Amino acid sequence: MEADNDTGISEFLLLGLSEEPELQPIIFGLFLCLYLITVLGNLLIILAVSSDSHLHTPMYFFLASLSFVDICFTSTTVPKMLWNIQTQSQVITYAGCLTQIYFFIIFGAWDDFLLTVMAYDRFVAICHPLHYTVIMNSRLCGLLVLVSWVISVLNSLLQSLKVLRLSFRTKVEIPHFFCELNQVVGQACSDTFLNDMLMYFGIVLLGGAPLAGILYSYSKIVFSVRRISSAQGKYKAFSTCASHLSVVSLFFCTSLGVYLSSAAPQISHSNAVASVMYTVVTPMLNPFIYSLRNRDIKRTLKRITGVTVI
User: Fold this and answer.
1) HSE-up of residue 188 (Cα within 13 Å, Cβ side)
2) CB neighbours of residue 190 within 10 Å
3) pTM
4) Structural domain boundaries of the chain?
5) Residue 54: which residues within 8 A CB-CB, separation 6 or more?
6) Considering only CA atoms, which of 219, 220, 240 is closest in space to residue 63?
7) Secondary structure element (H or E) that encloses residue 108, with its range
8) How far is residue 62's CA from residue 69's CA, in Å, rounded to a whole number?
9) Disulfide engineering: 291 pairs with which of 40, 83, 229, 297, CB 3.0-4.6 Å?
């Protein structure tokens, strides 16, 4: 057994979503299209918000920030996957794997916090409309984004440094299309108790706490909307939250499901497929979800591109 251990391992093998050769061109084409749509769609949202002074409000500032993070989040995994398929190689270096873990956790957690901040923004707008501009001033908005980033970086740094202490066998095969933390830790041949405890603590802190904050915000929103007498007023209030709720449901259900089920290695392939939802599909859908239900975004996009958004 000792001969199989290697603390100085230089590379891992990413098995991807499928090892069938005939499926590789299909997977490559599909993920290339999804990635290009994600980048283009989110760039358009950022361009729309930055170019239209009417969109210089807290809600659109957070939306533009979310679009930026979504681009970075997807870019930590998909380009490497496409490169491996194109070169017919499954190799990722040890340093490359740790780097991928580090940035993946940063942007994943940052995405998480931004969704929570956006829920708080809707809570203030609907429950305290007269004080909205005072409470959600530019300084607080910037501080919320900055604090979210700092917490994400510190958590990622701690999780990544803990992976450095693990030992791996000379040949490590990861049944995934990228170096996801729970998959890499699961391949270690040394004791992973501290890593597991730290990972689940991170899930509670960066997953459970923000989700609780979102649920609390929307419980207050529902209570406030119920007191609105007109049906049109209720519809307008709920319509401003529908897009955000759709994204929250997609992101949290899939991401928390993947990490909470990480103790069951026999469903690792299912985890890889589920990971596609929150790493690729959700960032791609965000621009469509937010723009299709938003007149201001559609108007600005029409002015920029010359194309009417349905």
Assistant:
1) 22
2) 12
3) 0.90
4) 11-305
5) 296, 300
6) 240
7) helix 94-127
8) 10
9) 297
Strand 11-14 to 5-6 pairing: unpaired
User: Does residue 243 contact residue 282 with C-beta atoms inside 8 Å?
Assistant: no
Tokens of 195: 């890593």
Answer for the pair 53, 97: CB distance below 8 angstroms, yes or no.
no
- Three-state DSSP class for 173? strand
Tokens of 206: 């960066």
Crossing angle for the helix pair 58-75 and 94-127, to the nearest 10 degrees = 160
Kindly give the residue spans of alpha helices, DSSP state H, lying in 179-226. 181-186, 193-203, 209-226
The residue behind tokens 């791996």 is 168
Taking alpha carbons only, the member of 241, 273, 231 closest to residue 254 is 273
Say how many residues make up the chain: 310
- Rounded to whole angstroms, the Cα distance separating 116 from 74 reads 20
Question: Each residue of 217-261: pLDDT tens digit?
Answer: 999 988 888 887 777 777 777 777 888 888 888 888 877 777 666
Residue 305: its H or E element = helix 295-305
pLDDT tens digits, 157-213: 999 999 998 888 877 888 889 998 988 998 888 888 999 899 888 888 888 889 899
Topology adopted by domain 11-305 = Rhopdopsin 7-helix transmembrane proteins (1.20.1070)
Number of other residues whose CB lies within 10 A of the CB of residue 241: 21
SS3 content of the chain, % helix, strand, coil (to 5): 80, 5, 20
Distance of CA 32 to the CA centre of its chain: 18
Give mean pLDDT, residues 148-153: 96
pLDDT digits (tens, 9 = 90+) for 129-138: 899 999 999 9
